[in-house]
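Ops channel
N.P.: pipeline sanity check, posting one input/output pair.
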């Protein structure tokens, strides 16, 4: 399977013309009865070798962390960081393997954070009431963000920007905890704000590639995937869903919010918001069915209703999205992923 990044690279190398690449995208879109822009394509694996290399790399990381940790915890973390970079030099820079590249990136950024944290806070005993400790955690997160930046400059793996954004969010939250030890009382609003900020960053990347034919779209995909739970989870927790408050009125509010999230997901052509909120809407629907007496079958009915609705939405995604987007002002439409028409007739 070839990703949009592969096509972009082939065009840049002169292997195929831009017209041929566009013709291929149109052909694949027609075969799938769905425009390529609506597919949210990203490459995870190209073959079983990706899985094989990823498993082998994880074993190497476990061995490095374990063996080095027997000496000093920071040594184990540093070995993971260094080995992740070295393996990326071959499997990412030369072989362009997708899944291993994601594993190497996460190991490198996580290893950089762990190395700094275990050096700066050797006992690992930090609470939000420890101002100095939280400041050191913020410094460790800043080092992780710097590591993500270095990795991006060298390898340009799309998930790297999301990893860096997560590290930056960690820096901000840790600094706030150092300044305000009672941060646990406002942690969910802060997470929601951080999620909205990352969502805004994702939209900036999305708007630079409205046709979704370059690496920038892949970067936006991972940013949306990071932002979605940071938006959805705090919002529903603040409503009381996590505490088991599942009255009919609250369930109605949850469903209304889910419909609003679904509209946003359709407009921006990203499904991450809907997937992240799925567990909460399932709980809300279950509560509604219990209210109406369907206690024994509430799980089955909930799964059937939600599953059927999502399948129908998937089948008519492009049509529903086109209907919504065309109601928006033209200035906003010109910033959203393009609306494409497709030929539903199979090629002869």
């Amino acid at each position: 399977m070839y990703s949009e990044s592969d096509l972009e690279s082939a065009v840049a190398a002169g292997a195929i013309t831009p017209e041929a690449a566009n013709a291929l995208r149109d052909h694949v879109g027609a075969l799938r009865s769905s425009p390529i822009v609506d597919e949210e394509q990203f490459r995870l694996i190209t073959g079983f070798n990706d899985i094989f290399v990823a498993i082998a790399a994880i074993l190497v990381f476990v061995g490095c962390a374990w063996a080095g940790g027997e000496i000093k915890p920071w040594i184990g973390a540093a070995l993971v960081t260094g080995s992740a970079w070295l393996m990326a030099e071959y499997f990412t820079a030369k072989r362009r393997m997708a899944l291993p590249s994601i594993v190497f990136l996460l190991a490198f950024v996580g290893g950089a954070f762990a190395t700094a944290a275990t050096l700066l806070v050797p006992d690992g005993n930090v609470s939000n009431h420890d101002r100095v400790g939280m400041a050191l955690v913020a410094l460790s997160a800043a080092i992780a963000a710097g590591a993500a930046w270095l990795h991006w400059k060298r390898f340009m793996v799309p998930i790297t920007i999301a990893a860096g954004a997560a590290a930056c969010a960690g820096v901000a939250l840790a600094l706030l905890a150092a300044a305000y030890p009672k941060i646990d009382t406002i942690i969910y609003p802060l997470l929601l704000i951080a999620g909205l900020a990352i969502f805004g960053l994702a939209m900036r990347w999305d708007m630079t590639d409205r046709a979704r034919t370059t690496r920038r779209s892949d970067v936006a995909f991972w940013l949306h995937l990071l932002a979605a739970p940071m938006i959805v989870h705090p919002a529903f927790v603040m409503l009381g869903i996590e505490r088991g408050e599942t009255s009919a009125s609250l369930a109605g509010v949850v469903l209304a919010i889910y419909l609003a999230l679904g509209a946003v997901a359709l407009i921006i052509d990203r499904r991450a918001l809907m997937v992240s909120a799925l567990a909460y809407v399932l709980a809300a629907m279950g509560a509604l069915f219990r209210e109406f007496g369907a206690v024994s079958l509430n799980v089955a009915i909930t799964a059937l209703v939600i599953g059927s609705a999502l399948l129908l939405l998937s089948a008519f995604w492009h049509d529903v999205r086109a209907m919504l987007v065309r109601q928006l002002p033209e200035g906003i439409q010109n910033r959203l992923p393009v609306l494409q028409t497709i030929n539903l007739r199979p090629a002869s």
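N.P.: looks fine end to end. Residues 131-155 form the longest helix (25 residues).
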